[in-house]
Design brief:
The complex is a heterotetramer of chains A (536), B (373), C (322) and D (308). By secondary structure, chain C is mainly α. Chain C is 71% helix and 0% strand. Classes of the chains: A alpha/beta (536), B mainly alpha (373), C mainly alpha (322), D alpha/beta (308). Bound molecules: adenosine-5'-triphosphate (2 copies) and magnesium ion (2 copies).
């Protein structure tokens, strides 16, 4: 396992002409790529560019429609993951593939058992796990249930799974999406170690910073195609961004300083316990004023979603919330999305496909979604279809939704256009407060600019905006004030003009001290704890 | 992008599934040494060849419209109500109580009363599983199955006990009073010199069933309730976001579903038997599943599928009467229809989608070619 | 109630619980692998018919048993193809299979034997006969233990003992073998199994096949051991009670045994209303006893007595590509 | 042509329906005639089958089972030119002949045989559905047994309260085993398809069974003591023979009319002692001349010799 590979001409991985369609969607189009052994190769591209698909093909999860795979200079067939594992390939998926009701050890052994009996396999795995953990700083408790450990820890289990199977080529699909900057740094150190051991690493990300920091070479994907492969040292973030999007992009939003007015939303001591008994929000207080954007930063899963859900009316909570000075019901009969909308709160949810839209409804039906009881959409107990249709055509026009076909089902619009439909519906309600979660997740840069402009325009009309995003860049670009959430707590507020990613990252990990003195272990302990929450 | 045009989804797939089911049924008939062609002739003749046959076909169809609508409306809210059998049984109890213990002056009033009784009892029997699903997360499929058995035991208890007239040997209530007898097709359409539908049980309930189709159609596609119900069926998380209460939708959709299943009783209990017998539902609750699947959960589709099953039922009874093919053949056909239109849907759909996709690709290529010229 | 009566009651419990136990364990394997199966009933029925029919024609119950298992496996295959290969709705597939079995058994039996949808009575080697365990007769007169051994433990058909042995076997397979680990994993998160390089389809088909074999045993037991021949609808809802027992047992092997024994006991009790009256001093409606397994299941499902959490991926087809 | 409708158990139920079927076949074989027949699969079909046969011109139409009483009452008036024969129930209509049997008399006879054959002093009865008709069997049986041995214990169980009780052999077996554990060594069943399980259990467990309706002695040779014959076959045969000239009205067939009796054949010859034969013959004569009056449960819904 620790043999150092002598630099040879044969690439560790070579893909030739890979194509893959999912029904009508062509996810990969004639893609070729070479990865040299002992290097870290980055793959960057927008959401939906086809990165995960390509790597899943390499790992035998999907089968390509066309193309060849060469490993260490030999052409191989990879019909399933078994073959990939045999070829020395390991993969950590974007969405972990762990059995939550199993222990860490069982998860590691699963599929790599030595014999038909379980006991000897488990014993060997326990021994080897210890060795691996020591070697790569990958400490895990082998007997913990996966459902009881945090995401950072789960990621280690995934890496260990690959190493246990003696992978020489390790694919990581957006590994940092769930990590704090410090945790990400730790991960990168591990990757450096692995590279030094001679392993080949393919790292998928859409964060330019990470590419620049760690990779040796980088490939850029756009709309299912490979647009370029370059040496990292010979490129720049701006050049990569342009390759990703296909045109020059603005990385900053133009906006004037905010003119905050009266307090619109006042939240005091908000507490949420979910149905598993986990305490999700712990005494959260905040205020949003008219004409300002309050950005909430945090690693996914630290209570931001619950905050939006409570304010949006579909999670129960205790505490005091007032809207325009009037108290809001948090538990009773009128604690639902309908009353919130009547109170002047509009909500662009974090997940437009699962929440904001009914994917099988046509655009014109979705335009009334959440507002189905509005007087203008109804005629007695019936719905006024003509009014809905008219409204849709208007809004789609104003938000430049393409194609302008109100009868098209939501699922048939692209991600960016789906988001525009939701935005159009919520913004055009002229709300006093707009809750907006992950406004540009899975959206093209072109659409991102448009959406950011709309948010700022709404602010400038004197509306209050509460923005939640896991993209620090987005938070920094849009917010007038930034609050950081960690483990259900508000860690404090910062001024975007004076703070930086490093400081926010510390807060996101639950640290308030000097960034220099904190160890990664501490951060991990904190986050593992936060990931599962505390039982009450 | 939808791969297939809508007509293919709505018409082509059910038709292909039906053809597959029919072909396999024919093989079964052949295998037991009978002629499928002869069997079909007997079925068509017996079920559609006379007003008498139609009278039975439409009578059965009426049952299936109700149970089919019941399953369909629940499907729209993504509830699988497999408890139509029990709900219809309880509906029968409601009808029996209304007819036996309230002195009705006229059948029309009795019909209203019985409809209310049937709907109420059927709904009540569906609401319990619904509430358990909404509040306690008990799987509705399992609970409704259990409720079928509980209903059977409960009715059994009543029909051999409190509701059985003294001295009777059958587990059944006494005959309903004459004033509750619903006009049959014979009463409605026969003239002195041209007797139609003689002795067939089809009755005025058929028109109630048609009305139910129209009302349910409007409910699903025209009302706010229907909008919310379908939204919930497509995505529960989205429904919550929009302020649609899952509890409300689960309970209301199941209540409507149960009410519809219960309303079947006005046809078979009040319209036909004119008393409540044990096991009056005779599997119609389950046939509702096949009917709803076949009819793509659309009231019009349900209506057509119900007629089809009415035909199968009456035709099957005729088969049993005139050939040695047992009536259980109908159960086989029913099973095959459920299998192909429900569980094996993808088997039919996937190749079709491939064909349509290939055609579309070809068309797209052709247009780019012509554009290039 | 004296000892002998009690033993008779328990004896009857064991007999009646056996088909429930076999079907329940069948469901256990299938559902643990993530394939819900409400078609237990149909598979039992199909096996009951074919085992009786073949046992009658060949005169050998063992050949009959094989045929019954074969019939059940065939229906399992349909369920597998529908819910694994074609990713159909498992509940609907189960419903279809129940109807298919209910219809086909009668249609075929009628055309084969022309006895109104039943098979002729089985006799001698065409059915399972009770086995007297060693020393049963000798020990019969030993106080207390003797009658227990003779009345309750000895004198059942082979399949009863087989069913009882399958409980520890299932437990061992599920929790101590590689196959068991993978089976449980595929019911919780098939993607994890898939990316670990194990075939989800293969595992699930295996589980469904095991389910078929066990249902086959259950059905054959009904027609060739508990009874001497097939009669129409002879499974009489046992598949559903087994399903109820599976939920009651929270998808675990040993609790499956206790749950089916409990439900078997209720059935035995329903046959002896006189015992209830004499023991309790008041009479209980047999209808209530009939409905009790279902009521208990609903109560369990509602989480009033400990929550039953099904395998996480249960009922959902494993879809990689939309 | 005549027609016959069998009840839910089906024409091969080895008892009631099969007996009716045998009568019909005998007629067909002897006369070379043909008849229409149908086996009901569900309650709802009763009326349909009746009408279908009436409309197709079948005459007379014989129906086996008391459950036809209600539908027949409904439709008889619609077909005044058709003759209907109903077995086991009485329907008052000008074109209906009702055939009922004095089952208590036949049951009395097999009760006597049971008591004489019993070693344990306990005999038992398994009924199908708990209805007055079946209680009539049980009551006559108990009375017969007690006439031989006043101290005898008679255990009576019913399989259920719904028509499903006619077709539940598993339950039949279990009930029989329960009765055995209470000391019974002879069991009489009047339970349709359920009875198959009863006789099977008796044969498997060193008990003697007693068949019902048809002669069931052959089912387990040497292990079925006798069968209580109810000559449904004769009733059907007679009706078919009379054809359209069937006499409307009520016919009650008992021992005197040879409508009920006990089955003696080669299969039970070893079980029947000469004393039994004489006792039975005496009793038959007594019943026929009225000197022995067997209580009919259905006359007053009570049973002096047995509590249910
Ligand atoms: N299993 C699937 N079935 C159908 N379509 C899929 C599937 N997986 C991906 N797609 C589609 O294929 C395209 C490429 O998706 P892929 O997940 O490879 O993108 P990605 O570059 O990894 O994006 P992201 O940054 O969001 O992870 C998208 O349009 C996506 O919707
Ligand atoms: N999972 C999927 N199933 C079916 N169709 C899909 C799927 N994902 C994407 N599509 C289709 O593929 C097309 C491209 O989707 P995608 O979200 O990648 O768009 P995009 O090119 O990134 O556009 P935008 O800039 O608006 O985000 C869309 O028109 C959509 O209809
Ligand atoms: Mg991806
Ligand atoms: Mg996009």
């Amino acid at each position: 396992m620790t043999t150092t590979t002598t630099p040879s001409a044969a690439p560790a991985i070579e893909l030739k002409g890979i194509s893959k369609s999912f029904g009508p969607v062509q996810a990969n189009k004639d893609i070729s790529i070479r990865v040299m052994p002992g290097t870290i190769h980055g793959i960057i591209g927008e959401n939906g560019a086809g990165k995960s698909t390509l790597m899943s093909i390499l790992y035998g999860f999907y089968r390509a429609d066309a193309g060849e795979i060469w490993v260490a200079g030999k052409k191989v067939e990879i019909p399933d993951s078994q073959a990939a594992i045999a070829a020395g390939i390991g993969m950590v998926f974007q969405h972990f593939k762990l059995v939550e009701t199993f222990t860490v050890l069982e998860n590691i052994v699963l599929g790599a058992e030595d014999s038909a009996m379980l006991r000897p396999s488990l014993a060997r795995a326990r021994r080897e796990l210890k060795a691996l953990a020591d070697e790569y700083e990958l400490n895990v408790d082998p007997d913990a249930l996966v459902s009881d450990i945090g995401v950072g820890m789960q990621q280690r289990v995934e890496i260990l799974k690959a190493l246990y199977r003696r992978a020489d080529i390790l694919i990581l699909d957006e590994p940092t999406g769930v990590l704090t900057p410090a945790e990400a740094d730790h991960l990168f150190r591990i990757l450096e170690n692995l590279r030094r051991e001679g392993k080949t690493i393919i790292l998928i990300t859409h964060k330019l910073r990470e590419i620049m920091e760690i990779t040796d070479t980088v490939s850029v994907m756009r709309r299912g195609q490979m647009t370029a492969t370059v040496k990292t040292a010979e490129t720049s973030p701006a050049a990569l961004a342009e390759l990703m999007v296909g045109r020059k992009v603005l990385l900053r939003v133009n906006k004037t300083p905010a003119q905050p007015g009266a307090v619109i939303l006042d939240v005091a001591d908000l507490n949420v316990t979910d149905d598993k008994g986990v305490h999700r929000l712990k005494g959260v207080s905040l205020q949003v004023r008219a004409g300002e954007v309050l950005g909430i930063a945090g690693v996914a899963g630290n209570g931001q979603s619950e905050l939006l859900e409570v304010l949006g009316g579909y999670a129960r909570a205790t505490g005091r919330v007032t809207m325009n000075g009037r108290p809001i019901d948090l538990t009773g009969r009128s604690s639902d999305g309908q009353s919130r909308r009547r109170d002047g709160i509009a909500h662009v949810p974090e997940d437009r496909q699962a929440e904001g839209l009914i994917m099988d409804y046509a655009a014109w039906e979705n335009i009334a979604f959440g507002y189905q009881n509005d007087a203008r959409f109804r005629r007695g107990p019936l719905m006024d279809h003509a009014a809905m249709m008219q409204d849709t055509v208007d809004k789609m026009g104003r938000f430049d939704v393409r194609p302008l076909d109100p009868k098209l089902a939501a699922k048939n619009f692209s991600g960016g256009n789906q988001q525009k439909i939701v935005l159009a519906r919520e913004i055009e309600r002229n709300p006093d407060l707009l809750l907006i979660g992950q406004p540009t997740r899975g959206v093209d840069i072109g659409a991102i600019e448009f959406i950011h402009q709309q948010i700022i325009a709404l602010r400038d009309q004197g509306k209050a905006i509460l923005l939640v995003s896991v993209e620090l860049e987005e938070i920094l670009a849009l917010s007038d004030r930034i609050a950081v959430m960690f483990d259900g707590h508000m860690m404090g507020e910062r001024d975007p003009a004076t703070t930086n990613e490093k400081e926010l990252g510390m807060l996101m990990a639950g640290m308030t001290g000097d960034p220099g003195n904190v160890t990664v272990t501490e951060i991990e302990r904190n986050l593992a704890h936060a990931g599962t929450g505390t039982k009450v | 992008m939808d791969v297939m045009p809508k007509w293919a989804d709505v018409v082509l797939i059910p038709v292909i599934s039906l053809v597959l089911a029919a072909a396999l049924s024919a093989i079964v008939i052949l295998a037991i040494g009978e002629s499928p062609w002869e069997a079909l002739k007997i079925m068509v003749q017996g079920a559609l060849g006379s007003t008498y046959g139609w009278g039975y076909t439409l009578y059965y169809a009426t049952n299936f419209v109700f149970t089919g609508l019941a399953v369909a409306i629940a499907f729209h809210a993504r509830m699988f109500n497999i408890g139509g059998e029990g709900q219809a049984a309880l509906g029968g109890l409601g009808v029996a109580l209304v007819c036996l213990y309230i002195p009705w002056p006229h059948w029309s009033l009795a019909l209203l009363g019985a409809t209310a009784g049937a709907a109420l009892f059927g709904a009540a029997w569906a609401i319990i599983p619904a509430v358990l699903q909404a509040k306690r997360g008990s799987h509705i499929v399992i609970t409704t199955i259990m409720f079928n058995f509980i209903a059977a035991a409960f009715l059994n208890y009543l029909l051999v006990g409190a509701l059985k007239p003294a001295g009777s040997m059958e587990p059944a209530t006494g005959k309903f009073p004459d004033a509750t007898f619903l006009p049959s097709f014979q009463d409605m359409f026969s003239t002195a010199d041209n007797p139609l539908f003689r002795g067939a049980p089809a009755n005025v309930t058929f028109f109630v069933a048609i009305a139910a189709c129209v009302v349910i159609w409007a409910l699903i596609w025209r009302t706010r309730l229907g909008y919310e119900l379908r939204a919930f069926g497509h995505s529960e998380t989205a429904a919550k976001y929009a302020g649609i209460s899952p509890t409300k939708i689960i309970v209301i959709s199941m209540a409507i579903s149960g009410a519809l299943a219960g309303m079947m009783a006005i046809n078979n209990v009040m319209g036909e038997a004119e008393r409540l017998v044990l096991n009056a539902v005779e599997g119609a609750g389950f046939i509702g599943i096949a009917v709803a699947l076949m009819g793509r959960s659309h009231p019009f589709g349900v209506f057509l599928a119900a007629i089809l099953f009415g035909f199968l039922y009456q035709g099957g009874a005729e088969l049993a009467l005139w050939t040695s093919i047992p009536r259980e053949l109908i159960v086989v056909i029913q099973a095959l229809v459920i299998l192909f239109t429900g569980a094996l849907d993808n088997m039919v759909r996937m190749p079709l989608e491939r064909i349509f996709l290939a055609r579309r690709r070809k068309a797209a290529r052709a247009t780019t070619l012509t554009a290039a010229e | 109630m004296d000892l002998l009566t009690l033993l008779q009651l328990l004896d009857s419990t064991l007999r009646l619980a056996t088909p429930l136990l076999l079907a329940c364990l069948a469901g256990l394997f299938s559902e643990r692998a993530g394939i819900f199966d409400i078609g237990l009933e149909g598979k039992m029925l199909a096996s009951a018919f074919l085992s009786a029919a073949i046992a009658f024609t060949t005169g050998s119950v063992w050949i009959g048993l094989l045929a019954g298992v074969g019939a059940s496996l065939l229906l399992s295959a349909i369920h597998g193809v529908a819910s694994i290969t074609f990713r159909g709705n498992q509940l609907i597939s189960g419903v279809a299979i129940n109807f298919l079995a209910a219809g086909l058994t009668v249609v075929i039996a009628q055309s084969w034997f022309a006895e109104g949808g039943r098979t002729p009575q089985l006799a001698g080697a065409a059915r399972f006969n009770p086995i007297t365990l060693p020393f049963a007769n000798e020990l019969r007169d030993v106080p207390v233990l003797g009658p227990i051994y003779y009345e309750l433990i000895s004198g059942h058909t082979a399949l009863v003992y087989v069913a009882l042995l399958i409980v520890p076997l299932s437990w061992w397979v599920l929790y101590s073998t590689r196959f068991g680990l993978r089976l449980r994993a595929v019911g919780e998160n098939p993607a994890a199994v898939d990316t670990a390089g194990i075939s989800v389809i293969g595992l699930r088909f295996t589980a469904v096949a095991i389910c078929g074999v066990l249902c086959g045993l259950a059905g054959a037991y009904l027609a060739t051991a508990l009874q001497a021949g097939f009669t129409k609808d002879m499974s009489a809802g046992r598949g559903y009670i087994a399903l109820a027992a599976l939920i009651f047992a929270k998808w675990k092997p040993w609790p499956c045994l206790w749950a089916t024994l409990l439900f078997g006991f209720l059935q035995a009790l329903a046959l002896r209303p006189d015992l209830i009256t004499s023991t309790l001093g008041f009479s209980v409606q047999t209808q209530l006893l009939d409905a009790l397994p279902y009521i208990l299941t609903v109560v369990i499902l509602a989480g009033f007595v400990g929550k039953a959490i099904p395998p996480r991926a249960g009922g959902e087809p494993y879809i990689k590509e939309r | 042509d005549p027609a016959i409708i069998f009840d839910l158990g089906g024409k091969f139920d080895k008892s009631f329906n099969e007996s009716a079927f045998n009568g019909a076949t005998r007629w067909a074989e002897e006369t070379g005639g043909t008849f229409a027949e149908v086996e009901l699969q569900s309650d709802a079909q009763r009326e349909q089958a009746l009408r279908r046969f009436a409309e197709s011109g079948a005459n007379p139409i014989v129906m086996a089972g008391f459950s036809f009483a209600t539908p027949l009452t409904d439709i008889a008036g619609d077909y005044p030119d058709t003759k209907f024969v109903i077995i086991d129930a009485v329907v008052e209509a000008p074109n209906v002949k009702s055939v009922v049997f004095n089952e208590e008399q036949g049951s009395y006879l097999v009760g006597m045989l049971a008591a004489m054959a019993s070693q344990t002093g306990t005999v038992s009865f398994v009924g199908g559905m708990d209805i007055p008709l079946i209680r009539k069997f049980a009551c006559g049986y108990a009375e017969g047994a007690k006439s031989v041995n006043p101290d005898i214990t008679v255990i009576a169980n019913m399989t259920g309260t719904t028509p499903a009780a006619w077709n539940d052999p598993v339950k039949g077996t279990e009930l029989t085993l329960a009765q055995k554990s209470q000391g019974s060594d002879v069991v009489f069943q009047a339970a349709g398809g359920t009875g198959v399980g009863v006789l099977q259990a008796a044969a498997d467990n060193e008990m003697l069974g007693i068949g019902v309706d048809a002669n069931q002695n052959y089912m387990h040779p040497g292990q079925v003591l006798t069968s209580m014959l109810k000559r449904v076959d004769v009733a059907v045969y007679d009706a078919f023979t009379a054809g359209e000239a069937v006499e409307p009205g009520v016919a009650a067939l008992g021992v005197a009319e040879d409508g009920v009796g006990v089955a003696m054949d080669e299969f039970n010859a070893e079980l029947i002692t000469p004393e039994m034969t004489t006792a039975i013959e005496t009793a038959q004569a007594g019943i026929a001349d009225g000197s022995i009056a067997v209580h009919d449960y259905m006359s007053d819904e009570s049973c002096p010799s047995l509590t249910f």
